[in-house]
Task: structure prediction
Amino acid sequence: MLPDWLAAAPVEKVETLGLYIHVPFCRRACHYCDFYFTPRASLMGDYAEALLREIDLYAPLLERFPIETVFLGGGTPSWLPIPLLERIFQRLYRFSSYQPDEVTIEANPEDITTENLRHWQGLGVTRVSVGIQSFSENVLQTLGRYHAPAVARQAVEKLASSFFDWNADLIFAVPGQSVESFLADVRFLIEAGAPHLSLYGLTIEERTVLHKKLQRGRFSPPNEDAYRTAYLEANALLQASGFIWYEISNYARPGRESLHNWRYWLRKPYLGLGPSAHSYLPHLRWANPRNLKAWVTTLGRDSFPVEFHEELTIEKQRMEVWLTQFRTRVGVMVAEVPGLSLAQQAALCQTLEAMAQQNLVEKIGAAFRLTPEGALLSDALILQLETAIERAPALHV
Ligand code: SF4
Result:
């Protein structure tokens, strides 16, 4: 039985579900990463058992709504042995609602073997997202990624010849990485026929090796000019090469955008399973503990391993719009921003028009969306938009 707060959620408007499965195992910590994982492969069996229990607990939701997309993220899902992956997928195939249009697995280059690719396809995986990050040895070393550039290139070749849909992640603005070398990486992937690319500027998160190095003065922060130049030049290069820039960090050839990504950005419902996974139903959010042991133990008692749940206030719903849809090529129409008085709508419109004058946003029909220059300043722009809303007279509740 679903917990009361979830059973009471209004789901009349829910049409389909996305499913995110967090696989919390990595061979070692990449120096920039703050995702939740453990290197203890000996716990993979316990993890899989607990995940099957979690799938069963959510059966009332999983069998009620068609599962449109699946995303195995991590961690390093590609490190999970095939027999464990088989058990997970077998459990999902029991649901008649399990007929997904897209099933993505995140992979590290060293796991892209002919054998794995064949097995994943056999399990119904339709898309592989590979963490290349860079083809330069020195950049990979700075990032604490231990695959060799040659392994990354081979992974790309194998993917290109076996999967129709795949993505490669690259990181830019890494100290020691020239803009030209980053653009050469982008060009290599364009020429390899990549249908989708995710380009992330290096940010230094707390709880990472790079953050510790920075604090000890053994690492210099990413250079802002290099960040800006790399971002704008890659954006221009990809758009000139026929890619659609469909979210701040994401590019796809026409028709090859990730359906699962779109779910997040258009705030469609998704269920997150596994430690640290988040879930969303309009307008409810909940999260699992960021701790494998706590998650396994709770599921061992056949209880939902939910550490936190909340109903989103109007202010939080609005912030979600800025942090998701506003960052996409769809943009945001003032009338669809929730909970605004007419005065607030007018103030928001005025602020967006002023941003358009500065080439930070552009108007497409009735929607405003970020330009590449605006994308570089998105956090500051969101703050300005929220300030404009807060200063105008609000709705009386
Ligand atoms: S970047 Fe990926 S592979 Fe590296 S530690 Fe983070 S989740 Fe694991």
